[in-house]
Amino acid sequence: MATDVSNELDRADNVGRIVDSLDSRRVLLGALGLVGFVGLWWAGSTAQPEYILPSPLAVGLAAQSELASGTMQAALFNSVLHWLPGTVVGTTLGIATGVALGWSRFLDEALTPIVRVLRPVPPLALIGFAIAWFGIGHAGAAFIIAIGAFWINFYAAYGGVEGVSEDLLDVARSLGVQRQLGLIRTVVLPASLPEITTGIRTGIGRCWMLVVAAEIFGAPGIGRQIFRASNSLQVDRVIAYILVLSVMFLLVDTAFRVVQRRVLAWR
Amino acid sequence: MAIESTADRVTVEDVSMVYDGSNGPVEALREISFDVDPGEFVTIVGPSGCGKTTLFRIIAGLQTPTDGEVRLDGEPIDGPGPELGIVFQEYHLFPWRTVAGNVGFGLEQNGTPAPERRERVQDLLELVGLEGFADSYPKDLSGGMKQRVALARALAPDPDLLLMDEPFGAVDAQTKTMLQEELLDIWDATGKTVLFVTHDIEEAVKLGDRVVVMDREPGRVQEILDVDLGRPRSRSDRAFGSYYEEILDRIG
């Protein structure tokens, strides 16, 4: 018996090695693609005036000057001030509501009509409410972002809970779990963790996009800077701030992937 | 080994099950009655469609019969609970828990203090021969090992009755033989009452003190056979063969 197990562990190791080698290939090809893209951009920019397509170098210089004046850091800091609370609140409420409706048939049937009505509303359509309820500033922008995070996480959690195996619930019951909350804690939440974490990850990315939209009515931040630069046709600054968003998304997404991998090590 | 134990008497009385099918009611089980004595190993064997899995789910408290009842030491079973240890064919381990976490699940629920829990989990892992795998996840285990974990998990809260539904139906023949022998050893060591459902006649004769033979359409008890053979039992034994033939005749 011990031998048949070690065979299986060996096999898992081999798979791991194949994945590793794939990864280095991936990194290489990815780098090549990136260099090619920047090259094309550069070539294109030589044939166009600055306000249509600035060169990569011009964008770099713009970024440098924004950094030197501290404008970029301040904008980033301001954006984080509504991105973070918006994402956290929207994600938490989305997961909680998704789990509740996925688990309870009563809640599902009672609330589905409301979900159907509210779901198609784009977060930006709620700007009027955001301003009226929370004012122009971080709270209003956080509200818009929270709406975006809410639905993604709601559907991810809902789907995850719906897919939880009846058999695992039977096993838990037979081992002494009696209350519904106990079943949710011991089976439903861990079993739907893959879907829930995927939802969180998708939501985090979506919320960075919403940061720009949420700042349309005056909340300070990266989006604000992008609008300003656009209005004065400073396309190099526009691109510099877009890249800040990309970098932030990449950093947060990578960090979350590491967390996700650890949390789902059992898969 | 500190595997303390209790065993109880099971009474199945006039259990009938009728489903609402699209072409009218479907009779899955008709007036099933039998007893299992404390500490006895009883196998239920029958062809597919004889309702043995339905019967299993009713005894496990996972389904309510249309008629009749199942009692455990005189108390009607009205739902699943820690007095019934259940082992399914498909293991149904919690994939997010380690082997030790799976085995300890029932002990967490009944409030066993952590040090005691660890000790008992360790004892149970030794009992099923998995002491080196406490920290492994189910995905890294073979089918046979998963079923050992499922067995240890079912035994952990010290159930009065161990209920098994084709537990060795998904493993290869060699592993199956090994697991059967281990189960008999564990039964011997713990003195549990065991009710074991299978479609495999050889397995039913090999394991059971008695064999409940079921037939289908509707699912009913054909006969209850005492298997008067010493253990270990061998298929090549002549007496074994005649039990086998008799059951085959009845349900074939």
From TrEMBL, chain A:
Keywords: Cell membrane, Membrane, Transmembrane, Transmembrane helix, Transport. It is found in: Cell membrane. It is a multi-pass membrane protein. GO terms for cellular component: plasma membrane. Residues 76-260 form the ABC transmembrane type-1 domain. GO terms for biological process: transmembrane transport. The chain crosses the membrane at residues 27-44, 80-103, 124-152, 238-259. Belongs to the binding-protein-dependent transport system permease family. This is ABC transporter permease.
